[in-house]
Amino acid sequence: MSFPHVQHLPRQQIGDFTVTAISDGYLTASFDFLSNIDAVDADSIQRAAGESDPAVIHINCYVVQGGGRTVLIDSGAGGIKQWGGHLNANLRHAGIAPDAIDTVLLTHAHPDHVGGLMTSDGQRAFPNAELVVNEREMAFWQDDANLARASERARGNFQIARGVFDGYREQLRTFSGGEVLPGIQAMSLPGHTEGHTGFLVESREAGLLVWGDIVHFPHIQIQRPDVTIAFDQDASLAAITRSRLLDSVSADGVLIAGMHLGEPGFARIRRAKGAYGLAYETDR
């Protein structure tokens, strides 16, 4: 399956910030990775939502422009494991050169979020960017005890994360919470990883929450928040975090963005008759 070139780049104006969804492409994951739902039901939900290839997980990144800054949130997979790899082409389509990115904010350090940070020859893909990451997230991937406990599949994730941190070591900043850049607040959203973080972009009474990997299959996990995925480090905590966040963003009408939210990039969560639903947001 080939991922089509993205002709339209979803965009939202958040006060003085312009936020653009930039697709890196997609990855695929078997429904066998999901817990608390069987594959038949998962497939049915996906197809009912209009997903022609139900196992596809879209990979989004976001560019926040304003206040003299050009900030990238996550970098996609960069072609690692044949996932994604379309970020740079779509940045060019948006008129953004790699050296114009001054900051990269990481929601977490899984391969499909950090894979685009280094080039195939081991150079920084964004040479002028400061890399900003939650201190707990960085500590987890740098811990040799965690590496020793990891499965063979997961050990490769450690190597990728460590390679990125090493590549940006002279341009790397960690945070524990609070404001990471003017107008951008970090929000701890634990469970998927140790330091999984959302970023709340606020300006002139407008706001947008980039919630990272709260969902991988949005139609399934918004309808069924108890459904977890094998990539969660703490599946129980990830489900609790998801349920609490869905409750708050639906009650407050918060505009959300997510790395696996689908090509439209932006949405609101509606609640009716005790169930959550996904409503994609058109550009404004």
TrEMBL record:
InterPro entries: MBL_superfamily_lactonases, Metallo-B-lactamas, RibonucZ/Hydroxyglut_hydro
SMART domains, per the entry: Lactamase_B
Name of a matching Pfam family: Lactamase_B
Keyword Hydrolase belongs to the record: yes
Alphabetized Gene3D superfamilies for the sequence: Ribonuclease Z/Hydroxyacylglutathione hydrolase-like
Domain (Metallo-beta-lactamase): residue spans on this chain: 58-260
Keywords in alphabetical order: Hydrolase, Metal-binding, Zinc
Molecular function terms from GO: hydrolase activity; metal ion binding
Superkingdom per UniProt: Bacteria
rRNA processing is among the record's keywords: no
PANTHER family, per database record: QUORUM-QUENCHING LACTONASE YTNP-RELATED, QUORUM-QUENCHING LACTONASE YTNP-RELATED-RELATED
Family: Belongs to the metallo-beta-lactamase superfamily.
Record-given protein name: MBL fold metallo-hydrolase
Organism per entry: Pandoraea aquatica
Organism ancestry: Bacteria, Pseudomonadati, Pseudomonadota, Betaproteobacteria, Burkholderiales
